User: Fold these one by one.
Assistant:
Number 1:
Amino acid sequence: MAFSIMGAAFQTPIICNIKNNYNNNSSYSLEANHIRRAAEIADKSAGFTSPHPNFGCVIAKGVNIVGEGFLYAQGTKCAELQAVEAARELSNGATAYLNMEPGDCHGDQTAVSALIKAGISRVVLGIRHPLKHLRGNAIRSLRSEGVQVDVLGEDLQSQSIEEALKSCFLVNAPLLYRAASRVPFSVLKYAMTLDGKIAASSGHAWWISSKESRHRVFEIRGRCDAIIVGGNTVRRDDPKLTARHGGGHTPVRIVMSQTLNLPEVGNLWDVSEVRTIVATQRGARKSFQKLLASKGVEVVEFDILNTRSVMEYCYDRGYLSVLWECGGTLAASAISSGCVHKIGPDMLVTGFLQPIPDLTPVIPSIDETSAIDPSFTPYEASIKFFYKTWDPYGAFSNFSAHPLQMPDGNGGYLTWPSVEHYYQAHKFAGVDDLVAKDCVEQIKSAKSPEEAARIGRALQRKHPNLVRSDWDTAKIEVMYRALKCKFSIYPHLNSMLLSTEGSVLVEASPHDLFWGGGREGEGLNYLGRLLMQLRSEFLGEPSTSISQ
């Protein structure tokens, strides 16, 4: 079986009038090379951070590249700002090449303002941003400031440009699929012998694939938010499903089992390093569910457990990319339900089962939507959800890239890269232990909020005795102090918060039942409640202090 990623995998973009100033193949080739380079560096953090929209920026004057940058993780410095800082005064009058339109969710347009302030005269974009609330915003802002903006396939067209455009599609395929289909991008890993076998006679699949292929699997795992297996795989192979790629990111392990006919002891029940979720039918083996919960395994019940419902759940958790490492039965179900987008078996064949989505989806008007759903009205949106930093209200997240200056306890101030850095470090504040103190220093220097959270949570799981004794009652006050600082020192964030007056704010994490709203509204939503308390205080309204 063969698949083409050069033909049907890509839909032909809409070609608008060509209005660039270039009229020879060499100039097109140069443009294409710079865009391909932007797409290449956009992928640099793969395996080291959880999947996120991949941004790369190359600043060039002719053939000479004078600055580069890429987004390392959500809540870190944007690619455009890094590039202009690297190029310094050479940015003035230069051209910036971006694999994707900037997506500022922080209300401050950092990426756009960085390019404008640096004197960039022209911006070449690979693709427009696929998320509706961000699509076209940066283009309009740049053009309103007199910056020339060209988009591949719209303003620029040639064979070399077409090839560069494909690299932009590929590096953000997970985001494109998620935006278009409302499920994470899904890859099926499936090793098979030439005579159609997927396991040895013993029933174990480990030795079907080569050593080189297994190393490739570890790399693919590091690029995913989650790995999904079925009950048969757990019973037969007792897998660990670790990434083992040398990076920092460890994908969540998800086991699908309708009956929970699973062993009581197994590698997947060790959650000291990696989290495990068991998805099952509602009501299945309650005693076994309690056993798993006692080990720290998260059990999620579904009214109807199938591949589609699990994928929708993964979408709600904010996942961009999922890897299926299951046996034939579950794999067939995932493919038939349209959950699998790409296959990558043993080092030979790789292909997309569905084309990368068109970047120009038709958005129905309010009247058209009302005709389809008479209950719809655009004036009833009284709940505003936030979760990932690229969401419409992503700036409300404790993972957003907004440094804080907080009192250090000695009369001075200490800069924290994000609210999450401050929160995680204060789990161990004041604890007289070398391991705890070292952890605090690691959290302070963590390159992203995600890494700060990973360090703090890992130590909390391994050494719960090192967490400060009053943490259960103190953590709300710690988060409140950090949020109050954040929304006090950034005027645009304060304005964004005040603009939600009259709306209920809900942190939409389906798995965090303390800070988030939970999967079915069962969460305590303390993060949303703290933001609403701050909003009332900023508006001068009476508010009640939130406590557990």
Number 2:
Amino acid sequence: MKRLAQSLATSLEACSNVNSLAKLHSIIIKAGHLEDTFYANKLIALYTKLSHFTIARKLFDELPHRTVFTWNSILKCYNRDKRFRETLCLFSDMGFEQKPDHGTILLAMKACVGLKSLKFGKMIHGFVKKEEVIDSNLFVGSGLIDLYSRCGVMSDAVRVFEEYSEPDVVLWTMIVTGYEQNGWPREALGFFARMVNVACVSPDQVTLISVVSACAQLLDLKAGRKVHGLLIKMGFDSRLSLVNALLNLYAKTGSLDDATCLFRIMEEKDVISWGSMISCYAHNGAAKEALDLLNKMIFEKVEPNAVIVISALQACEANCNLKEGKKIHQLAIQKGLELDILVSTALIDMYMNCSSPSEAVELFYRMPIKDEVVWSTLLCGCVQNGMAHKSMAIFCNMLSSGVQPDGIAMVKILTACSELGIIQQTLCLHGYVVRGGFENNSFVEASLIESYSKCGSLDNAIKIFDKVTDRDVVIWSSMIAGYGIHGQGREALDLFHLMVNNSLVKPNSVTFLSVLSACSHAGLIEEGICLFEEMVNEHRLTPDSNHYAIVVDLLGRTGELEKAMEIINLMPKVEPHVWGAFLGACTIHHKTELGEVAARNLLQLHSEHAGYYILMSNIYAADGKWDNVAEIRNLIKQKNMKKVSAVSMIEANSEVHSFVAGDRCHPTTENIYMLLKKLELNMVAEGYVPNVVSPHYAEEFASS
């Protein structure tokens, strides 16, 4: 009999399929061993392991005598398979038959955590308080703290912790981890300091990982370095999970040198280590190093995962490196990662940022699953690439697919609407903004103001502005810009002063750009220059090249080109459009020598903007320097530059008409040109003299 029992026990250990288990079950019944809790528990565990819960439950229900151990066995099986509701139902039934022990309590609390069932968890806590033996058990305490932490109720977790006079390192760690995972990193560090300095409890590896993660959340490099020093003292500096947490800290705080040094001395590296370092490079302006490290990782036969592929794609995006981006796309295909939704989204983002929207759209349509983020990424990319009509079509498809846009998508589609200049479309989107509950989103409201302004409906833009009660700097700046677009510089200035003097909102660099642009459009030269001085001296804001370009333009209009040059010389870095604004002013005032200075600087900056060269040719033409005009013409041909034709659009009778210079494709071309001829005759009659180059060169420039 003893030999049979040993044989059955060995056979049960080796059993791996349901047919063999059924035979053993039959032998156990015939041998009369089923009432033995050892065999009963083994059978229940094996049936659940092989996913035959019905048989396991039937066996459990038919047992004449069920011990706490038997109850715990079936509960453990249900928990292991994440059948948390059945676990709690069984736990409730158990109270009528057996008194739960601390093991049962832990299993029930684990099920509560799985369901995020705080209410049931508190009922279990109430039961625990009545049972003094269980209540004082540290394992039960850790289970309760875990329950409250996972449900986001840290006050209750701390209350449980404080009930233990001598909490061990596990309880301390659970509180630190709970605070860190619930987004309270400062409290996590405070509790850690109390643990080490007051209670003199030595942290373990798990504690330190949570502390390093808390430092990363706070972007507190100084505290992170102190923790790094502590773990070196404690001899944890070779623990892979800890070192990976440190790499993540240095990556998030932008400490490239620390991360590189740590990665170099690591004795052991896993895919997380490589991924953290590639991500560190990619997000801290070292795109080339990120791609080099990816190639090294592949050379060392480390399999890249989706996270690494995404980081590498972000590096390509930052550098506009389409060639490498396509290589990584091929790598993603080889590793079966291309249609992972996160990888696909990153690929679409990369293609859009590298000005290759066709590849992005093609990939999008091959994706089997599309979420809100990927729709939004495609939409934003189309807007970014000037595909306003395509953006509108994508937005409509997005809605028809049942995907609701977020605030970012709404801002982008309103931007597309602004570019199209279709007032009817803006009105429709305004209705959707109201229905979708975006009225409290200041960025969406600001985009609506901009869209109405650019579509020619300043009145509607003002109505939205007046309706907003809690105006932030984005709303104010958009309305100021709206007045500027319509040439109402005085109104823009008045609104700016109202914001500064009658509200708590402080202007930022965008606000000043809006009001300076309004002054430029309205010819308010002195006011614009005073505003620039106010920006720098009173508000202590650092101007960028766009602010400087407007000021140079304003000074240029008054003929103060020497002063404009002084401002340019003060700039840390002069962008091409600043020299372009200066060159335009030189053209107006026929300042050939200063224009040549601007032209030389534009050449040094390798600007490929044909318009700047044509401006310079106009200066030479006005001075009769036809050899110089010819030289610039040859330069334009050598560089294969084309002047980008501006597109004008007008909406008439709900139809949008677009034109470029010299356009003869419109159905009513003859009537349009007849009207233009009449206008030209009227202008000449009023004494207007056009500023043109020699007819010979004008013809050649047009063909260029």
